[in-house]
Amino acid sequence: MKERARSAQDKAQRSEDLLHAAEALATELGGVRFITVQAVTERTGLHRTGVRRYYSSREELLLELAERGWEQWRAAIAAAVAQRDGLGPEDVAGVVAETITALPVFCDLLTHVTLTLEGDVAMERARRYKTESFAAYDAIVDLLDRAGSMTPDQLRGLIAATLALASSGWQVAHPTPTLAALYEQVPAWGHVAFDFAPRLKLLLTALAVGLHNVVPDTVVPDSDPAPTAD
Question: Which ranges carry the HTH tetR-type domain (predicted)?
Answer without folding.
Answer: 12-73
